[in-house]
Amino acid sequence: MIRLERRLDRPWWLNVAVPAGSLAVALAIMGVVLLASGHAVWSTYRQLWEAGFTGNGAFSATLISATPILFTGLAAAVAFRMQLFNIGAEGQLYFGAVGASWIALQLGGHGATSTPLYVVAMCLGGGLLGAFWALVPGVLRAFAHTNEILTSLMLNYVAGYFLTYLIFDSSSYWRDISSLSGQTFPQGKPMPSGAEWPTIGTSVVVPLGFLVGLAVAAGAWFLYSRTRFGFEVSVIADSPRAARYAGMRTRRKILAVMALSGLIAGIGGASQIGDFTHTLDPTGLQAAAFGYTGIVVAALARYNPIAVCFVAVLIGGLQNAGFTLQGVDFPSGLVGVMQGIILFCALGGELFLRYRLRITRRARPQAGSTPATEAAS
Amino acid sequence: MERGAGPAGASPVPAVRMTGIGKRFPGVVANEGVDFEAAAGEVHALLGENGAGKTTLSNILTGLYRPDEGSIELYGEPVDFHSPRDALDAGICMVHQHFRLVEPFTVAENVVLGDHRGEGRRFLVHPASTERRVAELGKQYGLAVHPRARIWQLSVGEQQRVEILKALYRDARILIMDEPTAVLTPQEADALFGTLRAMAEEGKTVVFISHKLHEVKAVADRVTVLRAGRKVETVTAADATPHSLAALMVGREIAESQPLEQARDLSEVRALEVDGLTVPGDRGRSAVRDVTFSIREGEIVGVAGVAGNGQRELAEALSGMRSPSFGTIRVGGRVLRGGDPREAIRAGIAHVPEDRLGTGLAPSLSVTSNAVMKTYRTRSFSRGPLLALRRMREAALRIIQRYDVKTPGPATPVRNLSGGNIQKLVLGREFEDDPLVLIVAQPTRGLDVGAIETVHSYLREAAGRGVAILLVSEDLDEIRALADRILVVYEGEIVGELRTETATIEEIGFLMAGGENA
Measured between CA atoms, how close is A243 to chain B, in angstroms? Predict the structure, then answer.
């Protein structure tokens, strides 16, 4: 009989061995799937690696995929660490994009050209609007004890429809109604040229947003490991009763953490506008589902902001390789299956970090405890 | 007292006979050599303090635990239960203190749910027939509850009736009730006693677990008293008095070996004054009612009482964990607003809660984090928003050393420490802050003898330094060993105030069980 036992201590090498083992298992399972669907296993894996990481321009493309999920992954991680399950990074990112594009258009209208000014203002505008959107479920949770998972999830749809409304169903400030193409097909106003965020590097092109994300990750790590705020968050996460007993203000912490989570997702929205799309694009944003991928990133990184950076690049690479691989003889469904298997194994491997397997011989049901009872049975 | 056929002698073969039952858990002997007999047609009370082994014994009878030794016979037939289901099939049902009911289901649905032999096994349920049967049973035994009502709509007393109906529906011959009146009003309790008597008159056996003396007198035919996992005696209820039962339950010989201290000279300064305090319980009713007392500096006041008589709520109100509905709390002359733990901490109230690991500590966090859990926001451990990690660690090492906390290191999660070391850590942390008042609840529950000694000596030392201590404990020996004065609580009220030097353990036990002051 196999039994699971809770680990009392966790040897350090386990933190490396378990993810590596999970990945190996995932690749093995995927190998079976590939064989069954008539693909060469080894060359598929090599193609995957090249397309995601080592190929010409592959890593630059991977960073583009990684940037938004770095933000949403951090947004999820900072909230989940306090057992506050903000599933709303998706909607908060939309609102961030709305806020950042409004600021950029305003600055453009006033003739601003300084790119640093644009970057700072867009991060602020996007972050604040994202935080505002996250505070809706935050306030409900803090004062009315509603379940933040449901409210934040539902608000994603509200945010999505709001985005669509701005561009498709109204003559809002964000919609382009002056240009010819804008009159034939609804689209957002193009950002002023100063609002395009610069990139760094030539052989590997790093978007500015990715660097901002790394800075946010470092900040989050510092906040959670070195400050009073982080200390309180860790106590509240572990035992809300103990936190109350120690005189911590749980309600304020819920509001602050939700706002922080929304702020980070909102900056992610600003980076989408500044780094990549340069216009408010409701269809593209909603199709990408960055917020939901971010939850997976945070879970894989065990809510550690530094680990989120690496996981975001890994998942970004996987997504990017998926785009490259898929074609006539490699359906996109297979790419999805592959990503799913890797995530499934990685999350399943978590079990072995917390428990150890013990194989015991099945205990025989003991015979009656006295001769008298034995006689009866 | 007139009661049906004489239970003991009426039928020669007892309904239940448990012989030489022993059950050990790691580090604890829950039952040892317990003999227990209950006749058909009898209400048999199982009396004992918390931890006396009543619940373990009934869990063995209902098949939840297998005894390490001993045997069980039902109606003369030896049985060997491998699972609760075997016991159910043999006609043994138990009504637990915490009900096993599905809230959104109706009464009839819950009743059918528990029956895995008849109705409950069918693919389609026939609510009408079940409802009819439930209504009939209800009428027969005076258990008024509408079969179609949903559980969440019912009061606690009505929910208990549903539990009993479940047992009756399955034709239980032996019903075990675990402290059934803990959640009832006196009127509901009287109605319940009527039902139990009616069941006994039909030839069923009712085992009634309790630690309230007057109830046992009111409902039982015979009483078996357990203490420290062993059977003390079985007596006929009619012949027993609350005093004699209290003496059996608490143990006379322990009382005699009790060191009686001389009254100490104490300062006249009152550190804690509580006036007219009323505190709501979890279920809305007041758990503490109009309580007034004070504690002087250096004085230890013990609160004696059976669990669930408002002690926990009192401790929580004093430490700010629970908002009082009326009354004032004064610490060092300053009135507290109440309901704010941070305010209580600032005023100088230290608190060692009953639930050390879930409330007093954050179990997965390190010894260091837990050592500064209340002081991290003071100037010694933080500069602006930043934490002084090194000083936190030093403070933890200081507590570890001074209070002899055995831990692999300050970074170990407290969950991995033993019970005694967990308590030493909590006490150390609370003392480090130089409190005026210490509220300590069940400080030695679950600890081994050595750790108990240490904890007691820490408490005495603190009192010597002038800390006013409120000691809430269900262990009367502990209260008598430490306290200068004893307050006895019953149903949220202080029913007696005794001086330790003069109080007898019988007197305390009698008051604790709701007896009128003798």
Answer: 8
Q: What average pLDDT does range B486-496 have in this prediction?
A: 92
Q: Is B380 on the interface with A (CB under 8 A)?
A: no
H or E segment and range at residue A264 = helix A250-271
Q: Is A235 close to B362, i.e. CB distance below 8 A?
A: yes
Among the residues of B328-448, which ranges form H helices?
A: 341-347, 367-371, 389-402, 419-432
Residue A254 Cα to chain centre, angstroms: 20
| Residues B347, B330: Cα–Cα separation, whole Å | 9
Q: Which residue has the higher pLDDT, A356 or B270?
A: B270
Which residues does residue B36 pair with via DSSP β-bridges, in sequence order?
B18
Beta bridge partners of B205: B174
B314, B320, B321, B324: CA torsion to nearest 10: 60
Q: Which of B499, B472, B476 lies closest to B315, judged by CA?
A: B472
The C-alpha atoms of residue A267 and residue A269 are separated, in whole angstroms, by 5
Partners of B74 in beta bridges = B16, B77
Instruction: Please classify residue B484 by burial: count the beta carbons closer than 10 Å to its beta carbon, then call 0-12 exposed, 13-18 middle and 19+ buried.
Output: buried
Give the Cα separation of B427 and B447 in Å (integer).
14
Q: What distance in Å separates the CA atoms of residue B265 and residue B92, rounded to the nearest whole number?
A: 57
Q: Is the pLDDT score of B516 beyond 70?
A: no
Q: Which two tokens stand for residue B83?
A: 């699972």
Calpha distance A147→B273 (Å, rounded): 40
Name the residue of chain A whose CA is nearest to B386's CA. Answer: A227
Question: What are the tens digits of pLDDT across the range B280-339?
Answer: 988 778 999 999 999 999 999 999 987 778 999 999 999 999 999 999 999 998 999 989
E-assigned strand segments in chain A? 2-6, 199-200, 206-207, 355-359
Distance CA A25, CA A347 (A): 12
Q: A248 contacts in B (CB within 8 Å)?
A: 342
Distance, in angstroms, between A216 CA and closest chain B CA?
Answer: 18
- CA proximity to A297, closest of A313, A285, A284, A286: A313
Kind of pairing between the strands at B205-210 and B174-178: parallel
Give per-residue pLDDT as tens, B132-145: 888 999 888 888 88
Contacts of A365 in chain B (CB under 8 A): 82
H/E stretch holding B47: strand B43-47
User: Which residues of chain A make contact with B342, given a CB cutoff of 8 A?
Assistant: 247-249
B320 touches chain A (CB under 8 A): yes
- Min distance B270 CA to chain A CA atoms (Å): 25
User: Is B363 touching A (CB cutoff 8 A)?
Assistant: yes
- Torsion of the alpha carbons at B71, B74, B76 and B82, rounded to the nearest 10: -50
- pLDDT by residue (tens digit) across B440-484? 998 987 676 677 788 999 999 999 999 999 999 877 778 988 999
Q: Report how far residue B13's alpha carbon sits from residue B351's, in angstroms, rounded to the nearest whole number.
A: 53
Partner B contacted by A161 (CB < 8 A): no
Which one has a higher pLDDT value, B24 or A109? A109
